[in-house]
Specification:
- The protein is built from nine helices and ten strands.
- By secondary structure, it is of the alpha+beta class.
- It has two domains: 10-101, 2-Layer Sandwich (Phosphorylase Kinase, domain 1), CATH 3.30.200; 118-272, Aminoglycoside phosphotransferase (APH), C-terminal lobe (Aminoglycoside 3'-phosphotransferase, Chain: A, domain 2, Alpha-Beta Complex).
- The strands form three sheets. The protein has a five-stranded antiparallel sheet with strand order 1-2-3-5-4. The chain has a three-stranded mixed sheet with strand order 6-10-7.
- Helix 5 (196-207) crosses helix 8 (231-251), helix 5 crosses helix 9 (257-272) and helix 8 runs antiparallel to helix 9 (257-272).
- The chain is globular.
- The two termini are 27 Å apart.
Length: 273
């Protein structure tokens, strides 16, 4: 797990980078900086003169998290239709940028109990849980959570499904009609059991939606892959996720109190069920 990246506004990008961008998308674009996302040095929505939109994200080349950007570029061709399409990749002025189709949607999903966004999000996670992972060398669930598990638990986190692995509320955009969800930011795409994203979503329902673990359990259980998941596997994963956040807090990262509390509450609940 990596922590937040310092964010630049679009206007502060080096002139050479902005010139290369203008050559790619045309001049006269209006830009709006995005406030969400923790893995990009730049994140902006560009409004092109022809009325189309492009979402641009990027990092300085050589950044410690540059591998995540390249992973997202590699996996893009294999993603489902509810992931915005990658339009282009660009290297200029010491930066690596990705341009995605800009979608018309709400800022992000509402995960609170009773919210109308929960079913569109659950529908996407049901679809994703059945999608095979492409053979492009993605990290595995064990690569991600193994350091916080017992060595004998590896088989519980083995699988061949495509994982998003970061189902936070800000990564789900709901279209203006309110009945379709887009899933964005595939920087942590991985391979593993199909129930993993649902188990992580439970934690996020507690954290982002302030739901009780019991309420979260009702929603994640609507995803068949989770309902059929081995309980021991769910316990191992949710405990590893909680330990990872506790580790970062102990390391001295500020502002993690509520995250740690939610992850621990969800893990302890899963340990009892």
């Amino acid at each position: 797990m990596h922590m937040r990246v310092e964010r630049l506004s679009f206007a502060r990008l080096p002139e050479e980078v902005r010139a290369a961008l203008e050559e790619r998308v045309g001049g006269g674009c209006r830009s709006v900086d995005m406030s969400t996302g923790e893995s990009s040095g730049i994140a902006a929505l560009l409004f092109l003169p022809d009325g189309s939109r492009v979402f641009v994200k990027g990092l300085p080349e050589g950044h410690e998290r540059a591998g995540e950007l390249e992973r997202e570029a590699r996996v893009s061709a294999f993603l489902p239709g509810f992931a915005p399409r990658l339009l282009w990749c660009l290297s200029a002025g010491g930066w690596r940028l990705l341009g995605f189709e800009g979608v018309t949607a709400t800022p992000w999903a509402d995960f609170t109990a009773g919210a109308g966004h929960l079913e569109p999000v659950a529908a996407r996670l049901r679809e994703l849980s059945t999608r095979p992972a492409p053979g492009i060398g993605l990290m595995t669930a064990w690569d991600r959570w193994g350091p916080y598990c017992d060595s004998g638990d590896e088989l519980l986190l083995c699988g061949d499904r495509l994982l998003h692995a970061d189902p936070v509320a800000t990564n789900f955009l709901i279209d203006v009609a309110g009945d379709r969800a887009w899933l964005v930011d595939w920087a942590w795409a991985a391979r593993g059991p199909g129930w993993v994203d649902a188990a992580l979503w439970g934690f996020r329902l507690v954290l982002d939606g302030q739901q009780t673990p019991e309420q979260a359990q009702e929603w994640v259980s609507t995803i068949p892959a989770f309902a059929r998941a081995p309980r021991r596997g769910v316990r191992v994963l949710t405990e590893a996720e909680a330990r990872s956040w506790e580790d970062w807090k102990a390391y001295g990262v500020a502002g993690l109190d509520t995250t740690v509390e939610a992850a621990r509450a969800w893990a302890d609940f899963c340990a009892r069920t």
